[in-house]
Amino acid sequence: MSTVSETTHNGAVAVGAAPVPSADDGLSPAQLAAKYGLSVSGARPNIAEYTRQLWGRRHFINEFAKARTAAQYTQARLGQLWQVMTPLLNAAVYYLIFGVLIGTRRGVDNFIAFLVTGVFIFTFTQSSVLSGVRAISGNLGLIRALHFPRASMPIAFTLMQLQQLMMSMFVLLAIVLMTGEVPDASWLLAIPALFTQWIFNTGLALVVARLGSKMTDLAQLMPFILRTWMYMSGVMYSIDKLTSTAPHAVRILLDVNPAAVYIDLMRFALIDSVTSSQMPPHVWAVAVGWAVVVGIGGYIYFWKAEESYGRG
Amino acid sequence: MAVAEPEQRTLPPVQAPPAPRVPTVVVDDVHIVYTVYGAGTGKGSATAALSRMLSKKRRASNVRRVHAVRGVSFTAYRGEAIGIIGSNGSGKSTLLKSIAGLLPVESGKIYTDGQPSLLGVNAAMMNDLTGGTNVILGGLAMGMSRDEIRSRYKGIVDFSGINEKGDFISLPMRTYSSGMAARLRFSIAAAKNHDVLMIDEALATGDRSFQKRSEDRIRELRKEAGTVFLVSHNNKSIRDTCDRVVWLEHGVLRMDGPTEEVLTAYEEHTGK
Fold first, then answer.
1. What's the complex ipTM?
2. pLDDT value at position B54?
3. Residue ranges of the ABC transporter domain (chain B) (predicted)?
4. Which residues in chain B (138-167) have CB-CB distances under 8 A to chain A?
5. What is the pLDDT of residues A24-38, one digit of tens each?
6. Which of A162, A294, B14, B62 has its Cβ near the most Cβ atoms within 10 Å?
7. Do A29 and B21 touch (CB under 8 A)?
8. In this structure, is residue A146 part of a structural domain?
9. B144 lies in a domain?
10. Closest in B22, B137, B254 to A36, CB measured
11. Got the DSSP string for B118-155?
12. Can you tell me the distance from the alpha carbon of B158 to that of B184, in angstroms, rounded to the nearest whole number?
């Protein structure tokens, strides 16, 4: 065979013979396609069909999240232990800075449980967003090689973060118990709180996945946005104490912040000294509202660009 | 420029095949234009990026359009294996990407039966996961059920020949040689019966015995009423597997016809 490409171009057109049955002769390509039910390549399915395809890939999403979680720490000697170590170390750092050195702990009962809950719950949203940004742009190989509904990727990554959070929750429960909280019926509220937060995170991850697939600079920018968000969400201080003297508008703004809402709900569920009087008004309605709006909105927003992922 | 259409209408049908021919891919006067960002100036340098942000005409100076495919039309039928040949940069891979729905067309239309699968040479899978996990995830992603994968798992691994030299399937894919990775990818993709499977030089890295196996598999896929496209610079493997060849040159369809006829002309052209 020859590997030398010769570029002389004499314009001569040779045409070979292909046996063709006469029935389809004279049909234009579009008519031919219509006759045999061919569809335009790369067209986006409607949202019902898309959801059906996505449901068909549920095992893929699940297995992908499991495999990724398992592979995450294979390069580290301590392996899976890091799943628990990472949130613990995070909590330790924030305790040292904000609890001991700066002293935001004043006025908060059981500050350790308060802080660790805040850190873990915010980390869940934070890491969902961070992995969402790269869900498409970081998996182009897979996306270009195989066909599956692309929403599988960000959803799998948030599922992965949920599995990671489950690990953290064991640590959290241990810490909360050690700091003198007594388990009671209100602990069950943690389940709906986590569920609504997971829906919210998934919607958010879908939004940033679409943004990140086009704007690759977003992955660089995201940590700063998330850090700002964290400092506004009352992770290491009590919004309730801070806003008692603040103008009404500021208080409302801080209270409807979804991250703060989900953190508040988890603290309310686990820590006895956090009572409903410290909760912003309609906190459950706000939590469910965010989950529904961002969850459905993010899904539709992601689907709208389905055909463009992995292109170029 | 001359646009060659497969002149199907002017030719008398040579012995009509027993079953009516069902088209699976219809490519109708397709033009594909690439937009390349960051052409010319260094994208990595910070000052260059800054001046690009500041200058108003950054689009004009920095973006180049490459007209890769110019008015190609053909129809592929069920049970056909079509070789695509042409020198490097003649638009073969670009055309296949468009058929797979991974690149938008500038004008014209591509109609396909179901979702074509493209198997490219650098379609990486999940490198930090083991070969075995890749088999399972790849199968699930293609829409196979868990039972289906369980029953085909051994077949896929055996076909790839990854385990011929020891237990490599339980190692992460990043430890594989490029040939081994390509073999596993092909084995995963070929495990499913595709309506349209496009292979873009993905077999080139495999060794001889693997190439033989994959050519057999391509013939099987054709029998199962699929359509196979094969891009290759190896004229022998095209002769062995394809019954029809499409020759692209400079993004123009130069010739479309029976394998022997087109390959002979192509070999003459390339001066062999």
1. 0.71
2. 65
3. 51-272
4. 138, 140-143, 145-146
5. 667 777 777 777 777
6. A294
7. no
8. yes
9. yes
10. B22
11. EE-TT----TTSBHHHHHHHHHHHTT--HHHHHHHHHH
12. 10
